[in-house]
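W.,

You were right to be curious about this one. When I first looked at the sequence I had no strong expectations either way, so I just let the prediction run and decided to look at it fresh. Below is the sequence, 243 residues in total, followed by the output.
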Amino acid sequence: MTDPVLDELCAGDEVPLSFLDLIERRTLDLELAAWLVTCVAGGASWITGSGPGGIGKTTIMRSLLSFVPDGTPFAVALPGEVAKIQPPAKCVISHELSDHTPPTYLWDQDLRDFFALSEAGHILVGNVHADDVAAIRQEMVDGCGVPDARFRAVDLFCFVKMEGQDPEAWRIKDKTSRRYFEKIFWSDSHPDHVLVFTAADGLTRGPHRDPEAEAGHRAFLETALAGPARTVQEIRAAFLDRR
């Protein structure tokens, strides 16, 4: 049985791309994929960013929802309602953290309320229009008054870019257009976020790695790539049933 909030996030005229689709479209390789699954399955919060729009950050953000810990309900953070989100711990999703005008975006008090949810054990997920964690920190901590400790409670800031020019070509696996992870910053809530992945150099080693868990998740992904599950919900069901 799937979560109704997750079903709504994946609803529409077109089936959204899943994490397996992203691997097949060369957005990321299996090593990075297994590490990201390990982080998300361990309860990590993540925010996906890119400077320009249309890069696919929402697609990437949503695809990782397949691996949120078992038993975690989903909730959408909407303006004026963020502070009303109560226990039990949920995966709380913002369409975007921005001072722009769309009615679902969070800023000012809503943004501060969103980051405050981490103290109650909620997983935070969202998108931003930015291409570096320092720029996000300046806007949200220095400019919007988000406490630094709450900002650091977001484990992953993942930044994506596009090579090639045609956004639709990415959907049909056209090799002239590809979205890819450019860089990822990680924090365990105590130090500032550190750069742990770049497209040029790959993943670094350190306390953010769990080789045994990554190997198990890579095996799951390799099996899933050969299987029938393809939607975000189907992959989630397969992931939760994997043992």
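Here's what jumped out at me. The two ends are 17 Å apart (CA to CA). And, maybe more interesting for your project: The beta strands are 46-50, 74-76, 91-93, 123-129, 156-163, 178-186, 194-198, 202-203.

Coffee later to discuss?

I.
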